[in-house]
Amino acid sequence: MITSVPGFQVGHYTDSQAMTGCSVVLCPPRTRGSCEVRGNSPGSRELALLAPEKSMQEVHAILLSGGSAFGLAAADGVVKWLEGRRIGYQTPWAIVPIVPAAVVFDLNVGDELVRPDSSSGYKACEAASAGHFEEGNIGAGTGVTVGKWKGMEYWMKGGLGSTSLEAKGIIVGALAVVNSVGDVVGADGCVLAGARDRDGTFVSDREPHRPLARGRVLEQGNTTLVVAATNANLTKLDLFKVAQRMHDGVARSVIPAHTSYDGDVTFALSCGEIRSDLDLIAELAAQATSEAIRRGVVAAKSAYGVRGLAG
Predict the structure, then answer these.
(1) What is the per-residue pLDDT for 209?
(2) C-beta of residue 304 within 8 angstroms of C-beta of residue 19
(3) CA distance 217 to 81
(4) Domain 2-298 classified CATH 3.60.70.12?
(5) pTM above 0.90?
(6) Tell me: the pLDDT tens digits for 230-277?
(7) Which pLDDT value is given to residue 285?
(8) What is the β-pairing status of strands 101-103 and 156-157?
(9) Cβ distance 67 to 297 under 8 Å?
(10) Could you give the strand order of the β-sheet that contains 160-167, starting from the edge strand earlier in sequence?
(11) CB atoms within 10 A of CB 310
């Protein structure tokens, strides 16, 4: 899990009745971060300062939330929680926590009038730990769905997944929230979860080219969000390159990925003293991204009539 990387903690707020929630990754001191937005319909906060040319060198938490644009309010609760513990960027007048955030659209499942708010983000921080955590229908993965390229009647349940990989002393962990237009495929290229007929067969088995024009794509409500963390010592420019390569992992596990209807965002974080080959770290991050995405759908349970792989 991403919490295998020393110092990082994860917490969730889950509303199983309304089918929404949020997830927070709390960072250890001196964490740097960057990101890349490759989806065409993103919802986000504070991403501009993660650009490699920007001067800010600190990240204190990353928030992923349901609720679409409304869910960005949950970041206020994370900021409040961090400020209360005097964690943030020190100015002469106040401590300012740096909390980039991104959201998924889950208003089409559950109660569309209930969204994560400031108190939700605060509760997610209160629940954070460095230990093992549940996957599937939890936090920002509570109300997500996949395989929407054919229309709502074919979709399946998405979820939140996490994993970690290690090589030559480098640990890379990833956490993914999977709410994609596309199907999620395994390492063998076979569909794990996606557009599915009532008889249980995947539509892509008979329409292998997945021509979106022949389906009824949901123009709202699609995004894959991924946070990766490592114990390597990386610059912001290095982390930007890692975030770029993480999208390779998205494309390996989601077909199609980065469509006009997705808001895909990858975040890359580092806090450590180990120096290693950047390409090794980036490939570990891409692989961890793919595996976290797959774990998210494998752990997803059926809810509100949307079928999940975990029953």
Answers:
(1) 55
(2) yes
(3) 39
(4) yes
(5) yes
(6) 999 999 999 999 999 999 999 999 998 888 888 899 999 999 889 989
(7) 98
(8) unpaired
(9) no
(10) 32-37, 265-274, 223-232, 170-179, 160-167
(11) 14
Residue for token pair 């993660």 = 50
The one-letter amino acid code at 245 reads R
Biggest alpha carbon–alpha carbon distance for the chain: 64
Low-confidence ranges of the chain (pLDDT < 50): 211, 213-214
Structure tokens belonging to residue 33: 């971060």
Q: Torsion angle, CA of 117/127/287/283, rounded to 10 degrees?
A: 90
Distance CA 219, CA 227 (A): 24
